[in-house]
Amino acid sequence: FREINQRHGELVGDILLREVAILLKNKIRDIDQAARLAGEEFGLILPETERMGAFLVAERIRKEVERHFLRRDIDGRPISMTMTLGLAKYPEDAAVADRLVQRAEEAMHQAKARGGNSVGVYYRERRNFIRFDVASRPVQIRVTPAGEQEADPSGAAPEPRNISKSGLLFESERPYAIGEELVIICQDGRDAARVTLRARVVRIEELEGQAGRYEVGAAFLLEWEHQEAQVTEFLRRGGLAAAG
Description:
With 244 residues, the chain is an alpha+beta fold. It has helices at residues 2-8, 10-26, 51-70, 97-113, 227-237, and strands spanning 33-38, 41-45, 73-74, 77-78, 85-87, 119-121, 132-133, 139-145, 159-163, 167-172, 181-188, 194-206, 214-220.
């Protein structure tokens, strides 16, 4: 946004920020609250909203801002402005307001680091363990949404990228929903080590330059009986635990 102020002046910048504020207000409910935090940063409070619902709201806002400013110009000069959002949930991610804002900012900065114009979702569990790269190892996965009988046979098989005791990052042609529960079977082709796990989708992004292909982050539901021990044993047998 600093570039817009430098190119068009702070008066124009203030006008554009007011337009963003109007877009935000038009995309939220009466019980929600929107406020300008500082500079070009805004904050939203969405009461009684689950993580998946908040993600959908944030994604609608992101798309509306992008669409609005694709058509916007100043004195015939186009305005190219997008929005990057970070999402954190009370009280799972933080029970204190300042810390909750900090968590959302962390998610936002991670989204910016990946190129911006996206929604970053903070999820505490995925930060608790070292992740091990499995992209170059003979690890295969089969992913089935909970409630379905078997994995979707159409399209290419999902490809695992990294794994930890808390979750799995993989690429897929299927656009899973944030919050969707999955059954994931991981198998190491070298010694037939195999583990079946339940997980929940906490992040999904379309891969840059690969339309219709997504990077999916899934957090294991470790409250499931014996699941953490199973993950640990799978990592140990695959020689992954020693890599950390």
